[in-house]
């Protein structure tokens, strides 16, 4: 399902005690979303279940961040990331996401669990600039090479600071 939502400049800010929870299968199709996910996304449960999780992907999010996320969770590790999401009505909301693989009784990865909470304002401000630079790298690289080019840009930037993305994100 392609997202045809027109982004607006309307921001929704998460409440301090909110946790957005969703589960997906191995292909990123939503299998569960809690009431807070439904509220912030603006989609009904019926619209979300079975849809690709990228239904809420905001165009201001660099593809390189999602390449990092998928590389991390496919390696059976958890990933922390600041993400700008797009609601059905075009508004947006920032989250600090923690995505982890879900396992069956035999230890096989059967899907992914994401828990998102309200991000720190200073972190969003800082990462917004980094993400804008990554988007520019993606535009220059072209669609085929965009995710890898912007991820390389991010990793090189963080290497100059002597850190990795997860360490950087958790330090904000």
What does this structure look like?
The chain has one domain: Beta-Lactamase, CATH 3.30.450.20. By secondary structure, the protein is α+β, with helices and mostly antiparallel strands. β1 and β2 form a beta hairpin. It is built from 6 helices and 5 strands, in the order ββαααβββααα. Strands 2-1-5-4-3 form a 5-stranded antiparallel sheet.
Compact summary:
By secondary structure, the protein is α+β, with helices and mostly antiparallel strands.
Distance between the termini: 34 Å
Strand content: 15-25%
Q: What is the count of β-strands? A: 5
Helical proportion, percent range: 25-40%
CATH class: Alpha Beta
**Order of H and E elements:** EEHHHEEEHHH
Indicate the radius of gyration in whole angstroms: 16 Å
Mean pLDDT: 96
Give a topology summary.
Blueprint: E1 19-24, E2 30-33, H1 35-41, H2 45-48, H3 63-74, E3 79-86, E4 92-103, E5 109-117, H4 121-141, H5 146-160, H6 165-171
Antiparallel strand pairs: 1-2, 1-5, 3-4, 4-5
Helix pairs in contact: 3-5, 4-5
